[in-house]
Amino acid sequence: MKSAIVLLSGGLDSATALAWAADRGRSCHALSFRYGQRHAVELEAAARVAAAVRVASHRVLSLDLGGIGGSALTSPGLEVPKGRSEAEIGQGVPITYVPARNTLFVAHALAVAEVTGAEEIVLGINVLDASGYPDCRPEWLAAMQEVGRLGTRVGVMGQPVTLLAPLVAMTKAEIIRTGVALGLDYGLTHSCYDPLPGGACGACDACQLRRRGFQEAGVPDPTRYG
After folding, report:
1. Model pTM greater than 0.85?
2. φ, ψ for residue 7 (rounded to 5)?
3. What number of CA atoms fall less than 13 Å from residue 132's CA on the CB side?
4. Helix ranges restricted to H, the chain
5. What local confidence, expressed as pLDDT, does residue 130 receive?
6. What whole-number distance in Å separates Cα of residue 182 and Cα of residue 124?
């Protein structure tokens, strides 16, 4: 049985990627990060999803991206945008982009894969609903594959870890339909950038993309909005 490191944020996309990897018969090792994000809700969601999918292990690593700043997800002084239109969400790189976050995550995943012997790293990135994030593009994924090939022991020995992004070209609706077909309970997941005591804010980019995805998929939205 092949083993895979699956980057698991607790959000809709990463949970679907985990369910996809498990369905392919992979022994899944979930990898999450406490990186200085505004809240711990997503890590709680990641733990729920990992338990539901019955992963072989779930590791949580700590990074101080809050010490770098530059994002509304890590810097208290920056506000999370709310109520943006679909056109606005699709333009430019938003303030919720965390500088080099996915690059750092994959670098750590490569290290974990080398130590554990995992053959694959699975990511839930997707370019169509990525809100302009540069580290959700196929070009970035290809570049990180080269980093793994050239900069790791297993890579230079001719057995590089394979990076897989099964959702990269899907719309949010297609991702949701895929997860439903795999039996994934989206009520376990969390997407909101700025949750309220009563649930998701419903107005940030992530909430709007999630809500629209369920509507277009024709699937009831289990999200609790505050």
Report:
1. yes
2. -70, 120
3. 13
4. 12-23, 41-53, 86-89, 101-116, 138-151, 153-156, 172-181, 205-217
5. 56
6. 15
